[in-house]
């Protein structure tokens, strides 16, 4: 996802994210999707992400869904969180 974010302009990303977030049927799905998108970002990529995603969804990523995502990733791939 970080490569995709570098390839898209801020305007491209804004249009895409609004369209995709409307298709996610719940905050849980949106939060999990955003955690996946943010996984492995560099600091520079995270700064771009933070500019492009609303404060509510950043909160979902960082506080609400990231801990569960890390646990599931650890179980699936044998990597400690």
Structure in a nutshell:
With 81 residues, the protein is an all-alpha fold. It contains 5 helices and no strands.
Task: Walk me through what this model shows.
The mean pLDDT is 77. Helix content is 80%, strand content 0%. The radius of gyration is 13 Å and the shape is globular. With 81 residues, the chain is mostly helical. The chain has one domain (2-76).
What topology does this entry show?
Elements: H1 2-7, H2 10-23, H3 27-38, H4 43-52, H5 55-77
Helix pairs in contact: 3-5
Ranges where pLDDT stays below 50 over 5 or more residues in a row are: none
Shape: globular
Largest sheet: none
What Rg, in angstroms, do the CA atoms define?
A: 13 Å
Estimate the strand proportion: under 5%
Mean pLDDT across the residues is 77
Characteristics of this structure?
0% strand; single chain; 80% helix; mainly alpha; 5 helices
